[in-house]
């Protein structure tokens, strides 16, 4: 089977439409007001360590948590902060950031290299 729209194309489109921040820049704003880190990994991955204070919004529930009209709405999406998304290595967070941009969120970015880059840069981990 040949897909008409595979993951490589989807990632390229997402990366063209969103902002990607270097891990050093994400670490630099860690703990400052006005920024919310959002871990879009699955719970089992988060159990292996996460960015302290990050919100947990698994990618599979992102649209439901982000939409204020959804019964599953997560108030973190109404706080007015800049959202910094991360996953394990940067692929899922790029797609998730694109989804939020498509939904109308404007101040969204994702961390290049995800949690792996965060660990390598000695960012704080819970």
In words, what does this structure look like?
- The protein is 37% helix and 15% strand.
- By secondary structure, the chain is of the alpha/beta class.
- The protein has one domain (7-120): Oxidized Rhodanese, domain 1.
- Strands 1-5-4-2-3 form a five-stranded parallel beta sheet.
- Strand 4 (82-86), helix 5 and strand 5 form a beta-alpha-beta unit.
- The mean pLDDT is 96.
CATH superfamily: Rhodanese-like domain
The radius of gyration computed from the alpha-carbon positions, rounded to a whole number of angstroms, is 14 Å
User: Could you spell the SSE succession in H and E letters?
Assistant: HEHEHEHEHEH
Q: Based on DSSP secondary structure assignment, what is the total number of beta strands?
A: 5
| Relative strand content | 15-25%
SS content category? alpha/beta
By CATH, the topology is: Oxidized Rhodanese, domain 1
Helix content: 25-40%
Mean pLDDT across every amino acid position: 96
Instruction: Outline the low-pLDDT stretches.
Output: none
Largest sheet: 5 strands, parallel
Count of separate structural domains: 1
Strand order of the largest sheet: 1-5-4-2-3
Number of alpha- plus pi-helical segments: 6
Assign the CATH architecture.
3-Layer(aba) Sandwich
Outline type: globular
